[in-house]
Amino acid sequence: MPFFSYSHPVVFVATLLLLFMSANALPVECNGLSNLCTVKVTDAFYAMVHNAMAAVDNGFVIAANHIDDPIVESLTAGYRGLSLDICNCNGQLEFCHGNEIVGCGIGQVDPIEAFTEINDWIIANPNSVLLISLQINEEAGGAISLDMIQELLQQVPNGWSDRLYDHWPITAEWPTFGQLIEANQQVIFFYFQGPNGQGDHIPGLNYWYDFVWATGWEWPSLSELESTLLDSCPITRGDAATGDFFVIESYVTETALFGLEFLPSQSAAQQINTVEWMGKTLDACLEIHGLSSAIVMVDFWSEGNLTTLMQQRNALLVGSPTSIPSPTDPPVSPTIAPSTRTPTAITPTSLPSTAPPTPLATTTSLLIPTSSPTPMPSQSATFNDTFYPTLNDTVCTLETSNGELVMIPNGESYGDYLTTRCGSSEDYPCFCNMGQVQCPYCAFVDPATSRLYCARHNETIEYPDNTSYKRCTCQIPAIPWDDPITSCQEIPTTNTTKNMEPSTPGSTFDSDPQPSSNEWDSLESPPSHGEKYSTGLLCFLTMVVLSFLV
Asked: Where are the beta strands (DSSP E) in 58-129?
């Protein structure tokens, strides 16, 4: 019997095992982050290019929304959403930007060529998920049916139409990034106007406003856009009750000839498309509507650093197909021992474990900047060793005191290379977040007893004092270099509160900290699926089986 014949029962079973494990291997990273693979696509942040076809490089000289070619270059820059307008120009479907007055005359792009470029980009970047919103513009030309759109998409080569995810029925559970990538359906394709969701469902064509609710889009000035979004962030389209994606349309269209508003403002985009401006605006809109994720649509995508903000927010997400990923309250921790003094907030990583804490008057950041070499702990629970992180968007590089170079992928824990005084790295991990070291905790110290109290994101810790009962809360901003937000209030002590235990989780440590038994995973990246079913493991199992047969 030939040794490698599939009629050999052991070889046959081993082959089936290897094929099964290979088929179930999920991507190591999704949209550039390992933690996103288990996050539902509706629960993440996206930067989207508004009127992506309308770039100067594409011939849209008048009223261009962009300077550079955004259809592929914006994807390389980190944008994961494209809005496109399609018109029926004399019987030919074209990407255009026009109306009943100018028709298709402002500019045109061949949609098959554009979709082919996008498809080629996905083939080269298969672990990326994109959102595409197609506006069917019948004002600039003739009528357009969904059958015409479907026929167009089927003409794009290399399996483009098979790559479109079909969300049907509309009440179905949305998949995770990892599930879409594993299924080779990396494009969620929407449309609006035209048939407007009427008629028979066509697989792969999802009606935008079945799943989206969006802010207004007519903003004549930056000041009006800013004040309106910060004050009320009004929803003008879609249904909040059924919308799964929240869209913030953030661009300015200035008044030009004859009082018409049609000129996209590049100067406004230079402010809008930044971490600082959009960060505060995004936070305001999310708080107003009680949401945890959004799609931000902008003009002049090459201005600013909007994609950095989106990845900073995405790096903090942890989820599953059935949970909303956001930094959530951790499980109940051990009871906090009482203190006899009022604690003050400190940075636990700034204090040597062999020395008592130094009281500070104000809260300082627990998120350690890495733009310059900063001494931080190495492979020990103490702070006697030093490493120097290096800034990079996708990886953190550190050098230990013994000269070892360690690469920490974006979104992954530093493990024992970075242990704070809050406890073990398993219970209180620090992460590589867009090149920044992020230790997402607040700390409060009693200067009299050197007792340290640590709180996690959205955690409230309570403990009795001599004359009052202390309640302190912790919030970790999404931007890694922002200071944590802490607040404490005193509650008068009564006979009841004197004997009560803290009602919410927290952890305490003496000046010589011991690891706690708390378990909290809400900000820790999930285990790498690639590590779980790696090629090395498959080869190892194959060798074991074959060695046994020999």
From this structure: 81-89, 92-96, 108-109
Please give the angle made by the CA atoms of 482, 484 and 490, to the nearest 5 degrees.
150
Name the strand (E) or helix (H) holding 275. helix 275-289
With a CB cutoff of 8 Å and minimum separation 6, the contacts of 456 are: 330, 440, 441, 442, 474, 476, 505, 520, 522, 523
Write the DSSP string, 440-456. Answer: -EEEEEETTTTEEEEEE
Q: Are 86 and 192 contacting, i.e. CB atoms less than 8 angstroms apart?
A: no
Residue in 423, 442, 468 with CA at minimum distance from that of residue 344: 442
pLDDT at 137 over 70: yes
| Rounded Cα–Cα distance for residues 135 and 113 (Å) | 18
**Per-residue buried b or exposed e for 455-488, using 16+ beta carbons within 10 Å of the residue's own CB:** bbbebbbbbbbeeebbbbbbebbbbbbebbebee
Alpha-carbon gap, residue 322 to 224, rounded angstroms: 38
CB 82 within 8 A of CB 133: yes
Predicted confidence (pLDDT) per residue in 14-31, tens digit: 444 444 444 445 577 999
Residues 6+ apart with CB under 8 A from 515: 381, 423, 424, 426, 427
8 pLDDT tier (thresholds 50, 70, 90): low
Between CA 101 and CA 70 the distance in angstroms is 26
* Least confident segment among 229-238, 315-324, 370-379: 370-379
H-helix or E-strand spanning residue 465: none
- The percentage of the chain sitting over the pLDDT mark of 90, rounded to a whole number, equals 40
Helix (H, G, I), strand (E, B) or coil at 215: strand
The predicted model scores a pTM of 0.59
Q: How far apart are CA 232 and CA 349, in angstroms?
A: 39
Cα 206 off chain centre by: 23
SS3 29: coil
Domains and CATH numbers, the chain: 30-315 (3.20.20.190), 344-515 (no CATH)
The contacts of residue 74 (CB under 8 Å, 6+ apart) are 49, 52, 66, 68, 82, 301, 302
Q: Which residue has the tokens 């049907």?
A: 168
How far is the C-alpha of 293 from the C-alpha of 317, rounded, in Å? 10
- The Cα–Cα gap between 106 and 273 comes to 25
Contact 456, 443 (CB under 8 A): no
Q: Does residue 356 have a cis peptide bond before it, meaning omega lies within 30 degrees of 0?
A: no
Give CA separation, 497 vs 82, 453, 489, 491, 503, in Å: 56, 19, 15, 9, 11
Nearest to 375 by CA among 340, 403, 402, 350: 350
| Calpha distance 230→310 (Å, rounded) | 19
Structure token digits, residue 516 = 């706690």
What separation in angstroms does the CA of 112 have from each of 106, 128, 136, 482? 19, 21, 16, 44
Tens-digit pLDDT profile for residues 387-432: 333 334 557 777 666 667 777 887 788 888 877 777 788 888 888 8
pLDDT single digits (tens) 505-549: 443 333 333 333 333 333 333 344 444 334 444 445 555 444 544
